[in-house]
């Protein structure tokens, strides 16, 4: 998905097993961030950066929703351990990652495997994607600052 595209209404089930709909955040921007795996160093740094800027993001009219293909139980542990104030969608059937174009072949140490590309979409109040942070642009330790700067200038 690209800037100007309409984001899907159904995002999936969160850590509590509740359906997350884009319309739940009507009137607010949604920072929809995709990450590879709960409790890994880069993903923890990214989640904590967004957590640390969460109040500022909310003040800027944003809501944060994280997505990975991990289970609801894994998400609950990750949220609890890192005191995350936002929901995490458990995309275990890989429907949303595929729909958003962030699932594909990756390579580590010469080994190829399928996985989630770290990507963040800023979705405006009408459900239209207005900014995309691609994997090479995301700095996990300061991603909250990156997102805040982008929504502040929009």
Topology of this structure?
Layout: E1 10-13, E2 19-21, E3 29-34, H1 41-52, H2 54-59, E4 62-68, H3 72-82, E5 87-90, H4 95-99, E6 103-108, E7 111-116, E8 119-123, E9 129-133, H5 143-153
Parallel strand pairs: 3-4, 4-5
Antiparallel strand pairs: 1-2, 3-8, 6-7, 8-9
Helix pairs in contact: 1-5
Give a concise summary.
The chain has helices at 41-52, 54-59, 72-82, 95-99, 143-153, and strands at residues 10-13, 19-21, 29-34, 62-68, 87-90, 103-108, 111-116, 119-123, 129-133.
Give a description of the structure.
- There is one protein chain.
- The chain is α/β, with parallel strands linked by helices and 154 residues long.
- The chain has a single domain (10-153), classed as Glutaredoxin, CATH 3.40.30.
- 29% of the residues lie in helices and 30% in strands.
- It has five helices and nine strands; from the N terminus they run βββααβαβαββββα.
- Strands 5-4-3-8-9 form a five-stranded mixed sheet. A two-stranded antiparallel ribbon has the order 1-2. A two-stranded antiparallel sheet has the order 6-7.
- Helix 1 packs across helix 5.
- The longest helix is centred in the first third of the chain and has 12 residues, at 41-52.
- It is globular.
- The model has no long low-confidence stretch (mean pLDDT 96).
